[in-house]
Amino acid sequence: MTAAVPTSTRGGARPEAARREAVRARVRAAGLDGLLVTDLVNVRYLTGFTGSNGALLLAATDDAGSRFGTDGRYTTRAAAEVPDLPAVVERATALALASRASALGIRRLGFESDAVTVDAHAALAGAAEGATLERAPGLVAQLRVVKDDTEIEALRRACTLADTALTDLLDAGGVRAGRTEREIALDLEFRMRALGADGPSFDSIVAAGPNSAIPHHAPTDAALRPGDLLKLDFGALVDGYHSDMTRTVVLGRAADWQRELYALVQGAQAAGCAALGAGVPAAKVDAASREPITAAGRGAEFLHGLGHGVGLQIHEAPALSASSKDVLEAGMVVTVEPGVYLAGRGGVRIEDALVVPGSGPAEGLTGFTKDLVEVG
Length: 376
Ligand code: ZN
Ligand code: ZN
Hints:
Blueprint: H1 15-29, E1 34-37, H2 40-47, E2 54-59, E3 67-70, H3 75-81, E4 87-89, H4 93-100, E5 108-111, H5 118-127, E6 132-135, H6 139-144, H7 149-171, H8 181-194, E7 199-200, E8 205-208, E9 229-234, E10 236-238, E11 241-242, E12 245-251, H9 256-274, H10 282-295, E13 307-309, E14 316-320, E15 333-336, E16 339-342, E17 346-349, E18 352-355, E19 363-364, E20 374-375
Parallel strand pairs: 1-5, 3-4, 5-6, 12-20
Antiparallel strand pairs: 1-2, 2-3, 7-10, 8-9, 9-12, 10-11, 13-14, 15-18, 16-17, 18-19
Helix pairs in contact: 4-5, 7-8, 9-10
This protein binds zinc ion (2 copies).
């Protein structure tokens, strides 16, 4: 069941208001009078608030009966970012909101039982006098899997920014023998920030030579050598949204085994992208990409799932893997990132972020070439 957020907002209404309406429908369907949102990512999604202490008491009726809570450090920020909800300013934000529930007519109050500790639950139950707390996991997360236009636009900008940083890095000669993995990671991150990113969207993976066969290698002081494969997995954070891309290049002319390995992964990646579509089981997309690698006898060297959703978190639903039960929907944004890793020699991974289409081919948000780049 997915009541999608309207993809366009008329009359300049904030997208957060449309998202709150969509959550309200779910709150009512669950038989609740309100939902206490304490997960900060969900609070941001529903209010626009970017501070470190905020919560939302969402009434099933309307915004007037709802409350946004934060503490005194964020009064100014909250007024700018959350102008459309009545605010409560108190240090123990979630408790302050819970204590107001019954006065606002909320008797059955859902809470995010997948994000609240046992101790916090006990404190909330004590504070919510006159209301009963009910488990309501995933109500906001279920909505977040399908991105609205504002979100896709932020992801598009984050992906384009990361593309540009990598192009600039290569054009400037930043990838060359003698430089270390750490230096290249720092250079890439500096370029993303200089281009306007709020930061890298996760710790960059820069892996040279045999290290490229380690899927999640952390950059070291190892210096690049001619003939190395160099795997770069990184992303930019823009307006809270995370891009994620991987490219593998060769320093100098590629050896035959590197060229063959690259072609295998490139074909698998294309097969995965082509399999994306609304109504398609995520496990089927994983299988479509894995098939050519398995056929080449390299199935055991594809060491991870095919991809994942990206958004306000770097890894979020849906999962693209053999064991996934998720079914794709139009407007999901997912990565497709097959890799083959030859231990002790080197590995290749190619990763794009794409928008799952309602029909036709998926829109790729990552623009950097997927053909083999020989550097220098
Ligand atoms: Zn990645
Ligand atoms: Zn990824």
